[in-house]
Amino acid sequence: MLLVGPTSVKLMAHKDLLCNNSPFFFAACKPVCIQQNLVHLPDDDPVAVKSMLYWLYHKRLGVPEEMFHKDAVVHVHHGMKSAPGLLAKIYVMADKFQMPALMNDTVNALMYWHLEHIESSKLPAIVVKYIFQVLPHSESSAFTYFAHYLVGLQYDALDFNIAKPYLPFEFLFQYYKNTSLMKNKKPLEAKFQGGVSIKTLLAKGLGPQGTEIKKYVLVKGQR
After folding, report:
1. pLDDT at residue 140, as a whole number
2. Which of 45, 71, 72, 84 pairs with 35 at a CA distance of 20 to 30 A?
3. Could you tell me whether strands 39-41 and 2-4 are parallel, antiparallel, or unpaired per DSSP bridges?
4. CA dist., res. 19 & res. 98, Å (int)
5. CB–CB of 159/122 below 8 Å?
6. What pTM does this model have?
7. 217-219 and 62-64 as β-strands: parallel, antiparallel, unpaired?
8. Rg of the chain taking only CA atoms, in angstroms
């Protein structure tokens, strides 16, 4: 059993499934570490862990329907309770649990969310701040590369003024470099690590690995 968050929300999962997919859980479930078959995750979000468990059992990310529905509009000033905020939490958690396949599917999910909400939603600035604060290698992560792309694509001058206080220096530096807002610079095309154009991948419906974007599943009552 997993005890998640500051209030120790109880979530059931098969130990073998956790251990086979995560070196973190393999170590946490050793007899010398585990007590009464309980694994404590006090710093993690129960909703994010539920999405992770859905992914473990179905190999597809399951997300709360009310957060990811097409009518759920997200703005620059929205917080971590937005759809991109939850995906950021899942990505950071997957990194901590050493689950690269889940990290990749989370970026796929962010790309799919963007395509589903392309006319109505923008990446909240606080999501970028969270990734840089929590993820040790944030600057080189696929999530950050796509965040750069979304900010450059979605933000107008007013959005940027609202978001600027929340955007980390490292992100701003790369943003100015990539979008070439500085005088007499030619705009650079946003790419994932390895030089693959994000715009080209989206146009073809492909994720960062060059395979078809994996759609998430809308799950009722998951929050």
Report:
1. 82
2. 45
3. parallel
4. 11
5. yes
6. 0.91
7. parallel
8. 18
pLDDT of residue 182: 47
Structure tokens at 197: 């154009």
Helices and strands (DSSP H and E) totals, the chain:
11, 7
Name the nearest CA neighbour of 198 among 154, 155, 142: 142
Q: Which residues of the chain have pLDDT under 70?
A: 32-36, 178-189, 221-223
Q: Which two tokens stand for residue 221?
A: 């009552």
Residue appearing with tokens 């957060």: 67
DSSP string, 36-74: TTBEEETTS-HHHHHHHHHHHHHSS-EEEHHHHSTT---
Q: DSSP character for 218?
A: E
E strands along 121-208, which residues? 191-192, 196-197
| DSSP reduced 3-state for 2 | strand
Q: What is the pLDDT of residue 170?
A: 84
Q: Which amino acid is at 88?
A: A
- In angstroms, the CA 37 to CA 11 distance is 12
| Half-sphere exposure in the Cβ direction for 163 (13 Å, CA) | 31
3-class DSSP assignment, residue 10: strand
